[in-house]
Known about the structure:
The complex is a heterodimer.
Chain A: H1 3-33, H2 38-58, H3 63-88, H4 92-113, H5 123-128, H6 148-151, H7 156-174, H8 176-184, H9 186-191, H10 196-218, H11 220-235, H12 241-269, H13 278-296
Chain B: H1 2-19, E1 23-31, E2 34-43, E3 49-53, H2 60-67, E4 75-80, E5 83-84, E6 92-95, H3 109-114, H4 118-121, H5 129-141, H6 157-170, E7 175-179, H7 187-202, E8 206-210, H8 217-220, E9 223-228, E10 230-236, H9 237-240, H10 243-250, H11 256-266
Parallel strand pairs in B: 3-8, 3-9, 6-7, 7-8
Antiparallel strand pairs in B: 1-2, 1-4, 4-5, 9-10
Amino acid sequence: MSGEEFVPLSLTPLLIGIFAAVACALPGNFLLLRKQALIGDAISHVVLPGIVVAFLLTGAISAAPMMLGAAGAAVVAVVLIEAIRRLGRIEPGAAMGVVFTTMFAGGVLLLEQTDTSSVHLDVEHALYGNLESLIWLDATGWSSLLDPQALAYLPVELSRMALTLLAVSLFIALFWRVLKISTFDEGFARTLGIRTNLLGLALVITAAVAAVAAFDAVGSIIVIAMFICPPAAARMMSNHLEGQVAWSVGFAVSSAVLGYVLAGYGPLWLGAQDAVSAAGMIATVSGLMLALTARFGPCRTRSGAPVGV
Amino acid sequence: MLDLASNNGQARQEQELANSPLAIRGLTVSYGQKPAVFSVDMTVEAGRMTAIIGPNGAGKSTMLKAALGIVPAVSGQIQVFGKPLEAQRARIAYVPQRASVDWDFPTRVIDVVLMGLYRELGLLGRLRPSHRATAMDCLDQVGMGDFASRQIGQLSGGQQQRVFLARALAQGADLYLLDEPFAGVDAATEKAIIGVLKTLRAAGKTVVVVHHDLATVAEYFDNVFLINTRKVAEGPVAVSFSAANLQATYGGRLATAQVDQLALALG
């Protein structure tokens, strides 16, 4: 493919897909090891009604109100979970399950019942995003990367996702040592004076920021897949945390690239007419990678002594 | 005259508090409605090895965790070497129960020991060869030097326990608190651990161990602390590790024959 075609049509969606995948996979490593992997799933469900309400109130899709709406929805979710847990006297996991599914259903219902036809906000957008439409029409080829006039019309999602990735990476790099210690042995971490509660909260907030930013650009399917699949596959490739995180970034990038290319050209190679959803294909590819590492990964078996012996 | 005597007594008590590596006053911890630890006082004697004993669910580990701020206390005051806990964290080393962590965590033996150097390294301090040398030295002390680059999941239970002890050694503390270090370990490990603890005591360090094996209390420890939600007794093994105190701590849960046997062993 020539630069004249690739740069305006494929470069930006590809980059946004890669940034979103890596921004979710990085905190996903720690969530996975803390046995909180479903938090990413939960966040992407819970924020939907908040985003819809924010849109209904402002009438436009823009970053600040959507983030506020998402944050508001997250607070409502926490309060609801706590209330259900106490009033119903059931375990937190069950309370979470009830709240997340209910709020997502509420979000879908709101979408269906209100007029959002003027913008890209509907159930399909919520699930699959609109990666393919994040194109850069002002670009004419590779030279546009140096053209300030064309650069000014880059899709806003690109810079937003790049900034999110930068923030997530900074958080992980800055708190790497304490995240590692407190994820492995929380009690010991506390005796060192590490504020493990605050750190855990900061990790969840970081994951939430990544989830909401990615949700906006690429839909919840990718968010859910990227929080879990690349880190889980990476765990089966390495027995060191450093190695696991590096592998997870590799898996996230390659599923974004492979998924995007397969979605765009796969059906054509098979003789079909249209392309399929890039977000859906990226999630599928990451799932396949997980399946392959689960079967062939070098570190996939538990090697240790049984617990309690 | 009387006033003076009680003043003296109070002064001596305050002195004792200031010197104690770990002084607990009125500690109450509660999980839900029922208190797990109720209004417990403890004054650990410096330079000695103290065993905390009591039946299952008596609050031994909970008391230790609350004293270290790992679990929240309902009430109580903690002093470490005469100062509040927060100011003295660098002087404390803690060995949690082995089963409290997931040994499938992706990391190597040496990395676990290096976690003991966190207070020295800080958030972003660079890991230098000298830090690695310290960690290796601590591993050698527990006889695990050959296992430095093993994945921790590949170790036996006893080896995992020794790695935890090496991490505590790397902390270079004055007060060592260990939660059930002898639970489910092989004889060689038990010997290695007690050897290290005795070396620490000889160097003037203070060691407190949550212990479950009554048969080895007299052999291993100087002092004993008996607890069953409330404190039963505290003092030198020769005095406080008595049949009457054990009966009061364990109640019907310790067979009379066992108590008699222990009493016999104690002379």
